[in-house]
Each structure stands twice: as C-alpha cells, then as structure tokens.
Write a structure and sequence with these properties.
By secondary structure, this protein is mainly alpha-helical. The chain has three domains: about 1-45, no CATH class; about 55-135, DNA polymerase, domain 1; about 160-325, hpI Integrase, Chain A. The protein has 13 helices and eight strands. It has helices at about 30-50, 55-65, 70-85, 95-110, 115-135, 160-170, 175-185, 190-195, 240-245, 265-280, 285-300, 305-310, 315-345, and strands spanning about 1-5, 10-15, 20-25, 200, 205-210, 210-215, 220-225, 235. The strands form three sheets. It has a three-stranded antiparallel sheet, with helices on one face. Strands 4-5-8 form a three-stranded antiparallel sheet. The longest helix is centred in the last third of the chain and has 31 residues, at about 315-345.
Length: about 350
C-alpha cells in the first residue's frame, strides 16, 4: 500500500482468478485507508464467490502442490480428475454436503473400493480447504461428510511364491539385487534406492533405513527422512544380501545407474518392467514389501517387532496385515483338514 502524489492511497491485490487489480482510497489516514481496502476486498470476494467454478478452484489447488513429492502428486491426480469431472460447471459456493455425499454414493455404485473412495474424499477435502483458506467459501461441504458404510475393502496382495522364488534365483544383475533387497528387507522403493554403504553393518548383519529418494518431475533427490518418523529403523539382513551388496560398498550409494547417479523415476520403472518380462514375474516392488510382512508372520515374528521392521507408524496397519494373514492361514488349515478326512476316510 502506498500514498499517491494526489493524496489517495493505492493497493494492488490478486483476485481469485489470478488477475491483479488496483484499489484506491481517499481516506485521510493510513488506518482508515486499510479499513477501506479491507471493505473493498471483502466486497470483491463476495462478488466473485458466485462466479468461481469448482474446476478453477481445484486447478489453483493443484498448482499450489507442484513442489510436492512425485508419488504424492501421482496419487492426487486420479482423485483430482474424478472430482473435476463430477463437479465441473458447479459454482464452488453451490456445492453442499448432500452433493458430496451423492458423489461418494456414485463412486460406491461404480464398485470402487473403500481405499479409493477414501482417497477421493481426502483430495476433495483438500480442495475445499484450499478454497476456504483463500476465502472463496466460508464453509467446507466436506466437514460433516463421512464414507459410505458398505464400501468393500481390498487387501494388499503379496507376490506369489513363484515370483518370490524366481527373484531369489535371479540376483545376477543390479535390478535383480534390488528386487532381492525389496523382498528380504521390506524396504519401500525410495528407501532401497537411498541406501549407502554406511547403512550396512556387516559385523552385526543389520541394515539402517534413515532416508529415501523422492522424485520431482522424475528427477531424483535425497530426502533426509523416510516416509514417516517410524520409517527410521534398523533391521536384520541375510548373509546372501550382504554378499550381494558387498561389490557396491565403495560407491556413494548402493544402487546407481550406469552414469553413477541416482535413478530417475521413469528409468527405474522401465528397468523393473524389463526385469519382470525377463524372469517371468508380475509383482510390484510394494507387493514384495507385503511379501516381507508375510515372511515375518510365517517366521513367527511378533507384531510389535514386525511394526518396527516394516516402519509402520501405526501398529494397526501391522495388525490388519497379521489378522488378514492369520485368517488366511486358518482357512488353509481348515481346507487341509477337510482334504485329509476326505482322502483318509472316503477314498
């Protein structure tokens, strides 16, 4: 805000549309001019509120998140696209809780899982929160909305036993060693690619996970902490993994590309897809992390230790996995018992 030679006060503001506008005040004092400008800006916001479309507000929110982690942005994108497709043409001020509920019911009718609907509601909440902060609206229609009760839940799958066996037998390449690392440590992809020789304690046969690679527009950079504080952990590793990693102990990082640099997102994805075709597997790195959780369960590792080794911030995440695996083992045991009776007494 500044005072002009003609005695008027002047202030440049940015409208919700992104355009700038000059405001003027003939107030006698600076304090009075500030009050005048605040009144003018409030009137402008009220005037523009009815003309703000949902897609414009959503786009501004998406633009404000351009510097977030690549994986997070990838997760936002389908949720953002779905919300814009559904609410396109709506004025932001017209969307009420009933409309948000109708959106969620539509997702339920289309057969989306509980996790997918939850993610889409989360992104919708973020968009309306952004609108509220920017005073586009006074109240978020998502505030009192909860998920539909009858949504189906999908359990994350581990790799098949065949895939696990093929990975254990295919460690003669860098990508094969990386796959074996996923399977036997439960590292997330970024955590594994951030490993350094200093993270490997050969004497105590442990691995320290204390950082991760994140990708911004596919370009890698080291983030000095894992996904959560609980992600900082030390886990036991096998003699075979120590032997496989030993040739890379003189490098800055264990897993580097042919130029001695950290892998870009698209580069490591292409390598993984080629590796899958080469050895005949179909799993993802995250499914190998779930395989590691299954291995811990089968090995009799207690749930609290498993939580620490997996780097779960919430023990309920680990408990849900263990409960699912326990239910599956119970079903398998019941089936074996039934087969035993069938073959023993009725054959």
């Amino acid at each position: 805000m500044k005072k002009r030679p003609d005695g008027r006060w002047q202030k440049r503001i940015t409208l919700p549309s992104g355009k700038s506008k000059l405001l003027y005040s003939s107030a006698k004092t600076e304090k009075a001019a500030i009050q005048d400008f605040n009144s003018q800006m409030l009137n402008l916001r009220r005037e523009s509120e009815d003309s703000l479309l949902f897609e414009a507000v959503a786009e501004r929110w998406m633009d404000s998140n351009r510097k977030i982690q690549s994986n997070t942005a990838k997760g936002y994108k389908p949720c953002y696209d779905a919300a814009v497709a559904y609410f396109s043409g709506w004025k932001i001020s017209e969307i009420k809780p009933a409309h948000v509920l109708a959106y969620l019911d539509d997702l339920e009718e289309k057969g989306y899982s509980k996790k997918t609907v939850k993610n889409r509601l989360s992104v919708l909440r973020l968009i309306f929160r952004h609108a509220k902060i920017n005073q586009d609206i006074e109240y978020s229609p998502c505030s009192d909305v909860s998920l539909p009760k009858n949504l189906s839940s999908t359990k994350r799958q581990s790799a098949s036993k065949e895939d696990e066996q093929k990975i254990c037998a295919s460690t003669d390449s860098l990508i094969g060693i990386l796959a074996y690392t996923y399977l036997t440590t439960g590292c997330r992809r970024g955590e594994a690619l951030a490993l350094t020789p200093q993270d490997i304690d050969i004497e105590n046969k442990t691995l320290s996970i204390n950082k991760t690679v994140e990708w911004i527009n596919s370009a890698p950079r080291i983030k000095p902490s894992p996904k959560t504080e609980a992600g900082i952990r030390t886990i036991p590793i096998t003699d075979k993994l120590i032997a496989l990693l030993s040739p890379f102990m003189t490098q800055e990082y264990i897993f580097l590309n042919e130029k001695g640099k950290l892998f870009g997102d698209s580069h490591i994805t292409k390598m993984w897809n080629r590796y899958k075709k080469q050895i005949g597997i179909s799993c993802t790195p995250h499914e190998l992390r779930h395989s590691y959780a299954t291995i811990l369960f089968d090995a009799g590792i207690d749930v609290k230790t498993a939580q620490v080794w997996l780097g779960h911030a919430d023990i309920n995440t680990t408990l849900n996995i263990y409960t699912h695996l326990s239910d599956r083992k119970r079903e398998e045991s019941a089936r074996k018992l039934s087969d035993y009776f069938l073959t023993t007494f009725y054959s």
